Amino acid sequence: MMDLLALTLAGHTPDKSHGENATLHWQWLEEGVLELSPQSGYRQAVVLSAGIHGNETAPIELLNRLVIEIFTGVRPLAVRLLVVLGNPPAMRADKRYLASDMNRMFGGRYSQFSPSDETARAQRLEQVICNFFAGERATRFHLDLHTAIRESYLPRFGILPCQPEPYSADMLALLDAAELDAMVIHRAPGGTFSHFSSEQAHAASCTLELGKARPFGHNDLQQFAGINRALQALVSALPLPPRQQEPMRVFRVEQSLIKRSEAFKLYLSDDTANFTALPQGTLLCEQPGESYRVKHENEWILFPNPNVAVGLRAGMMLTEVPRSTLFSE
Ligand SMILES: [Zn+2]
């Protein structure tokens, strides 16, 4: 049995760093990072990560339960699997991060931040991802699981990294089965974990926002039933559960609102929900020498936050696009 979450929260390492049973081989690579390989063949190599933001508890608990079920044999392992709990010190402190947001640091961007445990961890996680996928000929997946701080008109959504290749139809089928409400297509590179694994390891990757988080032990995991069923099917290479709700909506980022000055003003209330629709012409933000008004007939705001550090993104403006956009960009 391997209780990855309990070990990680306690700051413990397991007595042995690796082991095996009749069906799998496991290896504790470092704090909060566990690799599981089936004894039989596999067709997919899958990274599942959570806790890059330490207080986003529900997906961490979800992944931990999946690991326990794999170890106890409740769920057969049919993929090569890397489970990553991203930021253990922040998880222990129930904080999003301690020094700086790790999900801005990947792709070497950690060097632009003051050195901290988090810059060191981001650098090591990059290495872990590269090692895991090195020479791997199976299909490569990475899902980075998050929960949002604010309310959202579309509560469950995925954010696809900007990449030159079309998005993976297999991954989108998985996300359909996970009952996501929407997908958002990035159109510029970024420092997210999922962008890194797309760009550097050529994995089909996605950041998933799965609802609102509560402290450990207080999550209504029922809220996460869709993603849970999809991940269970994924790790056991079983047919995906059929989607029950209406089709996913697809958006793309038209504009990132970058805070370039301490004088940056965002004209939205602090509790503005994700996917709030804003009419054409609305003045959204201003800073010296620059302002942004809604350009298209309909635009939606995602992650509005004027309190980010100068140089970082204070929000994203989206337009809705046909699903075929996913395969034609
Ligand atoms: Zn997050």
UniProtKB/TrEMBL annotation:
Cofactor dependency: Zn(2+)
Ranges for domain AstE/AspA barrel-sandwich hybrid: 247-320
Top-rank taxon: Bacteria
Active site per database record: E209
Domain (Succinylglutamate desuccinylase/Aspartoacylase catalytic) ranges: 44-231
EC number: 3.5.1.96
Keyword annotations from UniProtKB, A to Z: Arginine metabolism, Hydrolase, Metal-binding, Zinc
One Pfam family hit: AstE_AspA_hybrid
Single GO MF annotation: succinylglutamate desuccinylase activity
Pathway(s) where this gene product acts: Amino-acid degradation; L-arginine degradation via AST pathway; L-glutamate and succinate from L-arginine: step 5/5
Binding site for Zn(2+): H53, E56, H146
InterPro entries for this protein: AspA/AstE_fam, AstE_AspA_cat, Aste_AspA_hybrid_dom, SuccinylGlu_desuccinylase
Family statement drawn from the similarity comment of this UniProt entry: Belongs to the AspA/AstE family. Succinylglutamate desuccinylase subfamily.
Protein's job: Transforms N(2)-succinylglutamate into succinate and glutamate.
Protein name: Succinylglutamate desuccinylase
Native source organism of the sequence: Serratia aquatilis
